Automatic annotation (TrEMBL):
GO molecular function: ATP binding; protein kinase activity
Highest taxon of source: Bacteria
InterPro entries xref list: Kinase-like_dom_sf, Prot_kinase_dom
Organism expressing this protein natively: Embleya scabrispora
Protein kinase domain span: 6-271
SUPFAM superfamilies assigned to the protein according to its UniProt record, in alphabetical order: Protein kinase-like (PK-like)
Protein name per Swiss-Prot or TrEMBL: Protein kinase domain-containing protein
Length: 271
């Protein structure tokens, strides 16, 4: 067994056999009621330590229900976060699409709760850094939690270990996409409340429709990452929501359109 994983299990008093979070994870497991990550090199350990500290601070401020813990073995690091029950927004919406509009009335409620939660984070000086459908958890009680805080930013945290260059491309705000296009890989891009509002609107649109929220293209077959960012920055290939939606929902559509305005000064806050 990985010595770092073994150390984490021992420190947490876990007897259950750990299993990878997904088939693609090689350094992340679920064991008992914990999510455990490991990093062998100091460079890989820095973002894990950053997330553990972010979760501790969020818990202290009453903004997250659990905190993170960590330990070291030589130069390596393990981190652990209590497992949160629920499904990602992506999976929740995929299930709703398969079941038809019978669950439709729940989705606008979830969206308004998500925007209210984001507003609370922003009011306390936080930026999540990677708002996307897989980082939004729908709890069994229908509440919303943001997960995966390795890119979180707050004045009381140390700066990110590397320049911030956005989170998931497809939910990147147009103004962030433009900055990414206009700057080199070593330049930090400043994140704003308005940019995260866009990312949350884009996350709900992507999860609801099952399609990319701001472009009808994907990388490949002559389309590069810069082309996708240009699509996002200009809105030139954004499919009308009326053509992408699985069913009509005027409240949800209005919220998505208002929070995904290309102009951040005209973007609704959503809550």
């Amino acid at each position: 067994m990985d010595p770092l994983l073994a150390a984490a299990l021992d420190a947490l008093g876990i007897a259950d056999r750990p299993r990878p979070l997904t088939a693609h994870h090689t350094n992340a497991w679920r064991a008992g009621q914990w999510r455990i990550k490991t990093a062998e090199s100091p460079a890989e350990a820095v973002p894990l330590h950053h997330e553990a500290r972010a979760l501790t601070l969020l818990r202290e401020q009453g903004l997250y229900p659990v905190s993170g813990t960590y330990g070291r073995v030589g130069a390596g690091l393990w981190t652990a976060v209590e497992w949160r029950p629920g499904v990602t927004l992506w999976r929740w919406c995929a299930s709703a699409r398969r079941g038809g509009p019978g669950r439709a009335h729940h989705l606008p409620v979830l969206a308004h709760r998500a925007f209210a939660g984001l507003a609370r984070l922003h009011a306390a000086g936080w930026h999540h850094g990677d708002i996307q459908p897989m980082n939004i958890l729908v709890t069994p009680g229908g509440e919303i939690e943001f997960i995966d805080h390795d890119l979180a930013q707050h004045p009381d945290l140390l700066p990110l270990p590397v320049p911030y260059r956005g989170g998931m491309d497809l939910t990147t705000a147009p103004e962030i996409a433009r900055r990414l296009l206009d700057t080199g890989p070593g330049e930090h891009v400043e994140l704003s409340d308005a940019a995260e509002v866009y990312s949350l609107g884009a996350s709900f649109r992507a999860a609801w429709t099952g399609r990319p929220p701001a472009t009808d293209r994907q990388v490949g077959n002559g389309v590069g990452a810069a082309d996708i960012l240009e699509d996002i920055a200009t809105g030139r290939r954004r499919t009308p929501l009326a053509d992408a939606r699985p069913w009509a929902d005027p409240d949800l559509e209005s919220l998505i359109e208002a929070t995904m305005s290309l102009d951040p000064t005209r973007r609704a806050k959503g809550a």
